[in-house]
Each structure stands twice: as C-alpha cells, then as structure tokens.
Amino acid sequence: MAARETANPGREPVLGSATPDSSLSAMASETSQDLVVTCTAPVNIAVIKYWGKRDEALILPINSSLSVTLHQDQLKTTTTAAISRHFTEDRIWLNGQEEDVGQPRLQACLREIRRLARKRRGGGDGDALPLSLSYKVHVASVNNFPTAAGLASSAAGYACLAYTLARVYGVEGDLSEVARRGSGSACRSLYGGFVEWQMGEKADGKDSIARQIAPECHWPQLRVLILVVNAEKKHTGSTVGMQTSVETSTLLKFRAESVVPERMKEMTRCIQERDFQAFAQLTMKDSNQFHATCLDTFPPISYLNDTSRAVIQLVHCFNTHHGQMKVAYTFDAGPNAVIFTLDDTVAEFVAAVRHSFPPAANGDKFLKGLQVSPAVLSDELKAALAVEPRPAAVKYIISTQVGPGPQVLDNSHVHLLGPDGLPRRDP
Ligand code: 2P0
After folding, report:
1. pLDDT tens profile 170-219
2. Domain harbouring 374, CATH code
3. CB 3.0-4.6 Å disulfide test: which of 96, 199, 287, 370 passes with 399?
4. Mutation choice for ligand 1 from 47, 303, 332, 336, CB with most ligand atoms inside 8 A
5. In-domain check, residue 184
6. What distance separates the 2 farthest-apart alpha carbons in the chain?
7. Which bin fits 233, alpha (ψ -120 to 50), beta or left (φ > 0)?
8. Rounded to two decimals, what is the model's pTM?
9. Residues with CB under 6 A from ligand 1
10. Rounded to whole angstroms, how far apart are CA atoms 9 and 1?
C-alpha cells in the first residue's frame, strides 16, 4: 500500500479507491498495475458519407457526415488499458498480436489524451507531469466480429481506445479530438443512436466534433442487415483512396461544397421525424454519390463488385414491387452491403436475399445476430426480383439494430490484460 500511496500523490485514481467513475475496475494491490479499465465501443455506418480531408495531420474532413451507431450485441470492440509505474514502454496488442506502438495515429491518440489529462489537472505544458501521466500504458483490443468480414473496424477500435484511455487517465468531456486522430469516422462511434460529425471551420480542428442528434431509443422499428459479400481481392484503403479523390475529383469538391450541407439538414429531419421513405431514398443517393466520386477519382477506385450491384438491383426491385421505399442500401469502402429497413419488412427482405443469393451448404448459419422469422415470398415478388440467382455470393447476414455508445465494463473478469500487464490467454 505504501508504495502505491507514494506513486499516487492524492490526485490520481488509485487501486481499489473511489475514482471519478465508481464502475472502474481495479486489480489487486499486489499486481504490477496501478489502474486497469476495460470498455467497449460500437461500429457506425454513415448515411451521409465522409470522404476527403482538408487537413491530413489533424484529420479534418471536407464535409460533415452523419451515421447510425450499430448495436454492440452484434458488433463491438473491447479494449483494456492498464497503467503502471512498472511498465517500461507503451505497448499494444490487437486481436492477440502485438502491434507497433510507434504508428503515427496511435501516437497521436496517446499524445492527445495525455495532453487533455494534463490540461484537466491544471498543469500547463511546462509543469511537472502528474505521476500517472508519466506511467506507460499497455493496451489490448479485440473485435467480436471477424476482420475477414471486411467491416470497418477502425472506427470502433479508435473510439474504444480513446474512451478507455480517457477513463484510465481521468479525462472527461468530448473525446472527438482523440478518436478522430486515430481514424476520422471513429469520432462518430463515441455516441449511440444517430450521430453527426460536424466538419468545423477552425484550422486547429477544435470545432470538428461528433454530436448525438437522436438517442438509440428514438427509432425502435429501424433494423439493420449487413450482407457480407464474398470479396475476391483487397480494395484501396480509405486513407489513400480519399487522398487521391481530393486531389483529382471535381465531383467530390462539388459534393462537399454544394450537396452535403443540404443533405445533412434533410437527413437530420428524416431521422427526427422517423420519415423512413425520405431516409431510405437519401441514404441510397448518398451512397451512390460517394461511389460516383470514387469513379471520378483518377485513377478510378471501385469498391463495389458484381454482388454489390446485384444487391442494389434487388433493393430497387423490392421497393418497386411494394410501390414505396421499404429497404435502403449503403456501401462503404468495400463490397459489403448495409441494409436499413423497418421491423415489419425484415423477414420478407431476408427471404428475398435467400432467394436471390442461395446460401452455401451451411444454410442454417446464414443469418447471425437478431432473430428473423422465416417468410414465404409471393410468386409476384419472386417474379419482380428479376435477378439471376447467385449461389453463395452473399456469405452471411448479420442482423442488428441501432445501439448505444461506448460502455465501461465493471467486472474485473473481463480484462484482456492479466495481472502481469500482458494479454490473458483466456479472457
Ligand atoms: C464514412 N468511410 O463516413 C466513410 C464512408 C468509408 C466510406 O470513414 O483516414 O477509416 O482514418 O479518416 O475514417 C472510412 O474512412 O478514414 C470512412 P481515416 P476512415 O464512414
């Protein structure tokens, strides 16, 4: 105990003591760690897309964006951070593999959180560092979904890193700046429900922040299906892709300046009024315009494949058959489709996907996540779908819904780092 008291001169959260958040978990005092915290963070899917930076170093976007936070029961990152006076260097493990902690984006997040912690404790940049701020940190992070699914994991990953580091270093308030320095879209994963990332105007990025526009309980009928598509080859990474787009696409410039500002207002209205018809149409148009800017990039970038295009056709046929917008698609920097629909349409649409993309042998594993009742397609709908069946082109579907923002886990058994500060083999 004495050693711990020496190491924590009263201002730091200490093992087993009251902390700014009583749910923080602490390890037993004989272990080498002074504080260990585990948190989870969600994936988000943009319905008004972010594509292009005006400042590469600070990760400031050329337009605002708006996203839906997905439920962590199906998709989440879990991160443990531990600080200790015994650690000799910062270290990080992702999905069990140690990674280079010197990566510029990781370093930017660490620098930023320590700067905020120092500021919060009233120390100017020249002041002596509070002790826990001089401690090195160990971080372990895992996703509950396979990276092979091709889903953007960097948003959940960096949001979780920012949120967990903030708990461990005692930082409160908005963490957009920290998460954004890891990955732009990560700032939108700091909140649940429906979230906008305001592009901001300031050169230092202080006003480029994420903000919740409606909580996760706002639109309970809204459902999300992720159609994981069999992808043949790796696509262009987002960071490089958007750099090339900013340099070469006049369509992207037009989109950022003249299209997105109005769309942000309209999308906010659609969500506030739960106007699914308008929400669905705008979501699809914005996805299509994002992919059009990719084609307008030189050399062109194409993220969609034949299966993606078949999904687009399926959705339009489905909507035309019903005479209204029942389903919407959106695609990010890859061929997987994210589908938005309402709870009364999920079963029929999943049946339509099964019809158009007959599952491979393990048909019972085709649908993961929230349960969907079986449905029988009418002959009229089958005829209307008009797409040539593509067996196994969709690998599986993850069925989910809108969800909450990051959470602190208060059970010490959940920590991904053991008492020695190294990844546990059986977390
Ligand atoms: C989005 N995407 O709004 C858009 C739509 C992909 C397509 O944000 O360079 O990983 O780390 O800021 O956030 C992917 O880009 O890029 C992305 P960086 P990020 O979700």
Report:
1. 999 999 999 999 999 999 999 999 999 999 999 999 999 999 999 999 99
2. 3.30.70.890
3. 370
4. 332
5. yes
6. 77
7. beta
8. 0.91
9. 46, 49-51, 59, 65, 152, 154, 183-185, 238-239, 332-333
10. 13
